[in-house]
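Bug #77: duplicate submission created two jobs. Keeping one. Sequence:
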Amino acid sequence: MVDIARFFLDFSVEESCGKCTPCRIGTKRLYELLNKICEGKGCEQDLVDLKDLALTVKNTALCGLGKCAPNPVLSTMDCFYDEYLAHVKDHKCPAGKCSSMLDFVITDDCIGCGLCAKNCPVDAISGEKKEKHIIDTAVCIKCGTCIEKCKKGAIVKR
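Kept job's structure:
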């Protein structure tokens, strides 16, 4: 749900006419805070700031867009606060949408064909032919190429 709120804020930032400060600056700042949270760099104070800013933008914007832009943030924080907490406390995305918080893992279904390693743009995958391969999570950029190339579906996001 955090990623959904970010998606809607991205639209609002792009569509803002820029005439009033709450909408022009406030929606950008909300989007920046959501990005920080979705990247696993947020803290609990960011959640307080996010809600305060969302209420300020909603109550002070002059246009309909500015008054409605914070609604996805406010409603998801009210109904799915545990997801926001998971992002900032545990640095995990329960919905599995924030890729920077996920690890790519090769399961036992791996047959060692090497397609994943061959196509990895940063050489984060290693292993012998016909043996299960491993992903170096410190090197992996989480681009998803390995998942696309694996014909056995042996690579999952966790």
